[in-house]
Amino acid sequence: MTDLSTEVAALPDKSLLVMDDDAPLRTRLGRALEQRGFEPTLVGSVSEAITAVKSSPPAFAVLDMRLDDGNGLRVVEAVRDARPDARIIMLTGYGNIATAVQAVKAGAVDYLSKPADADDVVRALLARGDAPPPPPDNPMSADRVRWEHIQRVYELCNHNVSETARRLNMHRRTLQRILAKRAPR
Questions:
Q1: Is 162 helix (H, G, I), strand (E, B) or coil?
Q2: N or C, which terminus of the chain has less Cβ within 10 Å?
Q3: 3-state SS of the chain: helix, strand, coil percent to 5?
């Protein structure tokens, strides 16, 4: 953390917009990034984010892809219009190639799946040039990624096991067994 904090301390503008509709995640990430030297503004919706960008365009942004009131790509465009040199990272619980391509085309410099470690976010924000940031030190296991995806779809289906199983193309009983287990490491 000290190397990253030193790099952040050397920045002329440490303003950072953090947008996520998950309040506990937003607060934890905001605190962690503040401890590393950024000056975060925390918002929970697309409309709040656009208002914040208009009043004070940030040098950095960490944005959720999907929110209740819209898509994070709208905020990427607003940040790009207000401050073309801003470094934008997209976070999402829906890690897939199509949305990653959309985010990068819109102007994001990187795309990370939730839950993202604060150090990984800082590395992505500070990465320069075309070189991607180094891979995370402790990436999630494939089992954990699968479990996170199933949990997210289950939430989106309002905890309806049958609908979740249908959308995941999975047998209902198999899904019930997975949901009954603890999260893998």
A1: helix
A2: C
A3: 50, 15, 35
